[in-house]
C-alpha cells in the first residue's frame, strides 16, 4: 500500500517542477539577454508530463504516477518593443532596427497556469492525506 | 485445516475482499489525480457497483454451499476484478470517457475524482473497522480459553 503514497508524491513533484518553470518565466519576463550576456531574449519554458514515474521506489509506483518528460522552450517569436535608445535594440540596417526583442511571455497565461498547477498540487496533497489515513487505518487492525 | 475455520468465519472473507478492492482502487484514484495535467491522459477507474454485485453473487454462492457462517468466498471473474489464487484482487481499470475533453485531450474531472477519493476512504474505513471488531472478538475468545 505504500506504493500509493509514491503516486501522490510523484504528482506533487511534477506540479512543483511546473510551478518552478512558471516562476522562472515570470522572473525572466524582461530578460533581453541570455546567460552568456548575448542579446537573445529569454524563451518561455513549459513542462510536458507523462504517466508513470521512473524514480519511484517500487514497481507499482513506476507503473502509476506521473513524471516530467521534458521542459521545452516556446518557439513563438519574441515581443517587439520600439525603444531605439535601449542598449539591446536591434542595430541600424537590420529588419527590426530600433526595436528591442523581449521574451515571448504572456502574464495572464502564466498566472492561469500557476493557479492550475497550485490546485493540482493541492489535489495531490489531499490524495496523499487519504492514502496516509488508509495506512493508519490498516495498521489499527494489528493493534 | 482448523485455522481456516477462524480466518474464513462469518463476514471475514467478505470484509477482506472489500478492503482489498478499496486499497487497489485508492491507487487508481491517486494515479488519476497525479495525471490531472498530463496531455492525452484518460482517467481510468473500476466500478464500485459492479464490484458490489460481484460480491453479492459470491456471498449468495457461499451461503448456498456452506451455510452463512463459514467457507471460502470465491469471486467470479469480471472484466474489472479478478481474484487471484492467494485471495488478493487484480484490478483492471477501464477508461471512463464521461467528462468534457479539455484542449490537451485530457478529460479530467477533479470534483468527481475528489468525491471518489473521499468515498473510497470512507468505504475502506468501514470495512477495516468491521474487520477489526471481528479480530477483537477473536482475540477475546482466545484469551478466555488460555
Overview of the molecule:
The complex is a heterodimer of chains A (143) and B (146). Chain A has helices at residues 2-27, 59-63, 107-140, and strands at 45-51, 66-73, 79-82, 99-102. Chain A has 143 residues and is of the alpha+beta class. In chain A, the strands form 2 sheets. A two-stranded antiparallel sheet of chain A has the order 1-2. In chain A, strands 3-4 form a two-stranded antiparallel sheet. In chain A, helix 1 packs antiparallel against helix 3 (107-140). The model of chain A has no long low-confidence stretch (mean pLDDT 89). In chain B, 58% of the residues lie in helices and 7% in strands. Chain B has 4 helices and 4 strands, in the order H-H-E-H-E-E-E-H. In chain B, the strands form 2 sheets. In chain B, strands 1-4 form a two-stranded antiparallel ribbon. A two-stranded antiparallel sheet of chain B has the order 2-3. In chain B, helix 2 (12-34) runs antiparallel to helix 4. Chain B starts with a helix and ends with a helix. The chains are: A alpha+beta (143), B mainly alpha (146). The interface between A and B is medium-sized, with 35 and 31 residues.
Key descriptive features of the protein:
heterodimer; A: 143 residues; alpha+beta; two-stranded antiparallel ribbon; 3 helices; 45% helix; elongated; B: 146 residues; mainly alpha; two-stranded antiparallel sheet; 4 helices; 58% helix
* Computed Rg of chain A: 22 Å
Q: In angstroms, what separates the terminal alpha carbons of chain A?
A: 18 Å
Q: Which spans of chain B have pLDDT < 50 for at least 5 consecutive residues?
A: none
What's the number of extended β-strand segments of chain A? Answer: 4
Major β-sheet of chain B, in short? 2 strands, antiparallel
Give the helices and strands of chain B as they follow along the chain.
HHEHEEEH
Largest beta sheet: strand ordering of chain B: 1-4
Q: What is the helical fraction of chain B, as a range of percent?
A: 55-70%
- SSE sequence of chain A, one letter per element: HEHEEEH
Q: How many distinct beta strands of chain B?
A: 4
Question: Which of globular, elongated, flat, extended, rod-shaped describes the shape of chain A?
Answer: elongated
Rg of chain B to the nearest angstrom? 18 Å
Query: Given the structure, what is the number of helices of chain A?
Result: 3
- What would the average pLDDT of chain A be, to the nearest integer? 89
Strand content of chain A: 15-25%
Q: Give the rounded overall mean pLDDT of chain B.
A: 84
Assign a percent range to the helix content of chain A: 40-55%
Largest beta sheet: strand ordering of chain A: 1-2
Content-based structural category of chain A: alpha+beta
Which two chains have the most extensive interface, and how many residues on each?
Answer: A-B, 35 and 31 residues
Amino acid at each position: 500500500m505504500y506504493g500509493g503514497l509514491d503516486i501522490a508524491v510523484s504528482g506533487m513533484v511534477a506540479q512543483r517542477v511546473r510551478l518552478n518553470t512558471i516562476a522562472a518565466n515570470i522572473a525572466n519576463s524582461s530578460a533581453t539577454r541570455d546567460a552568456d550576456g548575448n542579446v537573445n531574449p529569454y524563451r518561455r519554458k513549459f513542462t510536458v508530463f507523462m504517466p508513470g514515474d521512473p524514480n519511484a521506489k517500487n514497481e507499482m509506483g513506476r507503473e502509476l504516477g506521473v513524471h516530467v518528460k521534458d521542459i521545452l522552450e516556446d518557439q513563438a517569436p519574441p515581443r517587439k518593443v520600439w525603444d531605439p535608445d535601449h542598449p539591446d535594440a536591434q542595430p541600424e540596417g537590420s529588419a527590426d532596427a530600433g526595436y528591442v526583442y523581449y521574451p515571448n511571455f504572456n502574464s495572464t497565461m502564466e498566472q492561469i497556469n500557476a493557479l492550475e498547477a497550485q490546485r493540482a498540487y493541492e489535489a495531490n496533497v489531499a490524495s496523499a492525506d487519504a492514502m496516509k489515513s488508509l495506512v493508519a487505518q490498516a495498521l489499527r487492525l494489528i493493534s | 485445516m482448523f485455522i481456516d475455520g477462524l480466518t474464513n468465519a462469518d463476514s471475514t472473507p467478505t470484509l477482506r475482499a472489500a478492503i482489498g478492492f478499496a486499497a487497489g482502487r485508492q491507487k487508481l484514484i491517486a494515479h488519476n489525480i497525479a495525471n490531472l495535467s498530463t496531455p492525452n491522459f484518460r482517467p481510468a477507474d473500476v466500478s464500485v457497483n459492479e464490484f458490489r454485485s460481484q460480491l453479492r453473487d459470491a456471498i449468495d454462492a457461499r451461503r448456498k454451499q456452506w451455510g452463512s457462517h463459514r467457507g471460502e468466498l470465491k469471486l467470479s471473474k469480471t472484466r474489472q476484478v479478478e481474484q487471484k489464487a492467494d485471495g488478493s484482487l487484480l484490478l483492471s481499470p477501464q477508461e471512463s470517457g464521461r467528462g468534457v475533453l479539455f484542449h490537451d485531450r485530457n478529460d479530467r474531472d477533479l470534483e468527481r475524482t475528489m468525491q471518489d477519493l473521499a468515498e473510497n476512504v470512507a468505504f475502506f474505513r468501514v470495512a477495516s473497522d468491521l474487520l477489526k471488531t471481528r479480530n477483537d472478538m477473536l482475540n477475546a475468545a482466545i484469551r478466555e480459553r488460555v
